[in-house]
Amino acid sequence: MAVNLYIPPESDIHPVDGVSIGVAEAGIRKAHRKDLTVFQLAAGSSVAGVFTRNRFRAAPVQVCETHLAGGLDIRALVINTGNANAGTGESGLHAAQHTCVALAEHLKVKPQQILPFSTGVILEPLPVDKLVAGLPDAIASASPDNWFAAAHSIMTTDTLPKIVSKREPLGDKTITVTGISKGAGMIRPNMATMLGFLATDVGVAPELLKDMARSIADRSFNRITVDGDTSTNDSFIIMATGQSGIQIDSVADPLYTPVYDALAGAATDLAQKIVRDAEGATKFITIQVEQAATPEEALKVAYAVAHSPLVKTAFFASDPNLGRILCAVGYAGIDDLDVRNTKLWLGDVLVASEGERHPDYLEADGQRVMKEPEITVRIALGRGEAFDTVYTCDFSHEYVSINADYRS
Amino acid sequence: MAVNLYIPPESDIHPVDGVSIGVAEAGIRKAHRKDLTVFQLAAGSSVAGVFTRNRFRAAPVQVCETHLAGGLDIRALVINTGNANAGTGESGLHAAQHTCVALAEHLKVKPQQILPFSTGVILEPLPVDKLVAGLPDAIASASPDNWFAAAHSIMTTDTLPKIVSKREPLGDKTITVTGISKGAGMIRPNMATMLGFLATDVGVAPELLKDMARSIADRSFNRITVDGDTSTNDSFIIMATGQSGIQIDSVADPLYTPVYDALAGAATDLAQKIVRDAEGATKFITIQVEQAATPEEALKVAYAVAHSPLVKTAFFASDPNLGRILCAVGYAGIDDLDVRNTKLWLGDVLVASEGERHPDYLEADGQRVMKEPEITVRIALGRGEAFDTVYTCDFSHEYVSINADYRS
Fold first, then answer.
1. Which of A282, B7, B169, B271 has the most CB atoms around its CB within 10 Å?
2. What is the pLDDT of residues B223-236, one digit of tens each?
3. A363 CB-contact burial (10 Å; exposed 0-12 / middle 13-18 / buried 19+)
4. What is the pLDDT of residues A242-281, one digit of tens each?
5. β-strands A343-346, B195-200 pairing
């Protein structure tokens, strides 16, 4: 049961010139479902990626990093669901490399021009032969209009596809940004979410695109959390094909900011969609921390609140048991926090100030906000000017059910 | 549904000379339940305490710290359930102080000789008048044999009382150690658990007892976690009455070690009982991390695994989805962890080595261990000689139910 997850109509999904997508049934884990996706990119595209910092990072993540560092133009992405190819050692690395070799042969490019991605169960060998056998079908179905099919094909425990698309004028030209993502558990991205793919027909210099990808990830996919579990496979990719005729080579370019904003807006939308469709989520919660001494401190407090199972179950119950939020602020790790300077709002309701319940606070007001499907928690620390925002969801029976049953 | 929580028969609970306990119904939150407990200590007892590091630490915690630092002999403890007196600001502090004043008048001692404790809902004013009105009943019922009654009286969402008692020979004398504790949610003690009280008839010099309390807390209450939420009210108290005639004044005393071991063993038992009766727990899980570079690193990895909702739900389902454990090891924050040197055992089964599933691992073996009510996860990091152990439980539907309904 996703929370206000907007799925645009097919007619609002704009293909991106230079990007062609095919999907196929490879039978990686289950039969009769699309589990293989191939993105093909026009020559001259630039691609940047941001990946998980989990030390058990998956084999495909390691191969992606090597290929991106290699300096050759990336010409294709290959994504499988059903198996994460993580915790699979040397043989997993060979499987990911073999996937690239096989796809490169089909496309007449070099294996180093392919980026592989996997998502699914950890610690089980990737059935690479099935994957490779599915490649011809995925290539045969390639079309610029397959974004919806791809959004479906990369889903695991997601209940809905996540897709964003916009087309906007820029000078005398028009630019397009379209992207997809998937969640829905093991989400506390530390570089990016499980998988997010964003494409634009703007051209961006490779080094600049790398900086943009990192900065945008830190505003979008790195600001969401479902369960605090940083996945082994988190990957966020921006593809810039340049087919619009617009090319950006530096931050000084007057078009840089509008392009950055278009990409960042799309990435934030995709990241929030992951939270809206998080495993078992019934509420979408925004945690704003302000008046922190440093941005790191703001983020630490926001995550402490966002990860507290007690806070999350209270949201699930629509119970304004708000002492739990203050408790999480208190153990977030700010050793010299003076609680008398803190304030807590739930939506527009001032709940606590000076370290205690505000005299005007009424339970009925807290209750009213708690019943909303979208709730903003605002915490002022009274220590400085820094701030940050994290997006999360509640913790429900359904989360337990999904994760107790995931492999079966 | 507690996991193998041993409740000794009444006949095995040994009173501690110099300790007398009374309980009463004060109607703090609910009528007709014992919610007020008063410990009285013989003159000359020494008392040491270890308290939460949560910055929103409750008013009674603040008063305890002040009174313990004051240097007067502590003569009584007063404990209420139903309200945590936390997030209650100045008025909460006055309520805790007023409680001490009222009890001191009854007992003809100074208010600074009283330690107050509260546990229950946060952010609501303590009904101190009800508490004070209940004191005469609690005093009137004082008896050395009321340990069981006290263990019941301090319960909140606990399903069973937690009590430990032993009597053992020491030289030509006999010493007694008896204690109680309570959980059962908001448990990731960072100084001690919600409430733990341990008494012995050994006499211990006050400064030495302080060191012992901290060291013992770090081996017991500070090594358990249910949900990662460090409470505002965690308090662990050791009372040493000296009535046995044995007195210890330094670590050089030959009796120091057996007394320390007796107290530490009892504290670990009480701490583990909290996990065994944790909210919704169906499994008791021991996480041993070894071959770490530093003890801090071992603890960090153990807590990452112990707090992962994905790991905890897999245990609930008895599903050996063990990649989730490696994933948590990977994001625990050891930046230079080489996963090829790690090993993972589930009970006696070697699951993973060299960063991948061990070739001899059979799902059936993992399944067999996962079905046990008590499971040991052992993780070797291959980095050094340091180690640590953390105790936790699984994450069930019942946890969500309990915490979604707690206030109602």
1. B271
2. 877 777 777 778 88
3. exposed
4. 999 999 999 999 999 999 999 999 989 888 888 888 888 8
5. unpaired
User: In chain B, whose CA is at the least distance from the CA of A123?
Assistant: B323
Name the DSSP class of B245: S
Of the candidates B186, B190, B400, the beta carbon closest to that of A397 is on: B400
Three-state secondary-structure class, residue B380: strand
The active-site residue, picked from B37, B99, B193, B230, is B193
Pair of tokens at residue B292: 């770490």
Closest by Cα among B114, B118, B51, B129 to B81: B118
Per the CB < 8 A criterion, the answer to whether A16 and A175 are in contact is no
pLDDT at A60 over 80: yes
Cβ separation of B92 and A232 shorter than 8 Å? no
Catalytic residue at B193? Answer: yes
CB contact under 8 A, B399 and A230: no
Beta bridge partners of B237: B49, B197
Catalytic residue, chosen from A52, A119, A176, A193, is: A193
Residues of B in contact with A324 (CB under 8 A): 122, 186, 229
φ/ψ of B262, rounded to 5, equals: -65, -45
Q: A362: nearest CA in chain B? A: B124
Work out the percent of chain B whose per-residue pLDDT is above 70.
96
Residues in chain B within 8 Å Cβ distance of A122: 321, 323-324, 326-327
Mean pLDDT for the stretch of residues A321-342: 89
Distance from C-alpha of A78 to C-alpha of A63, rounded to nearest angstrom: 12
Mind listing the pLDDT tens digit for each residue in B35-59?
999 999 999 999 999 888 788 888 9
**A331/B397 CB distance under 8 A:** no
Mean pLDDT of A48-66: 89
Q: What is the pLDDT of residue B167?
A: 93
From CA B147, how far away is CA B198, in angstroms rounded? 11
Nearest to B330 by CA among A61, A403, A112, A386: A61
| Residue A212 and residue A173 in contact, taking contact as beta carbons nearer than 8 Å | no
Cβ B238 vs Cβ B212: under 8 Å:
yes
Q: pLDDT tens, A98-121?
A: 999 999 999 999 999 999 999 988
Q: Which domains does chain A have, with CATH numbers?
A: 10-276 (3.60.70.12), 284-405 (3.10.20.340)
- Best of A83, A123, A301, A351 to mutate (most B CBs within 10 Å, chain B): A123
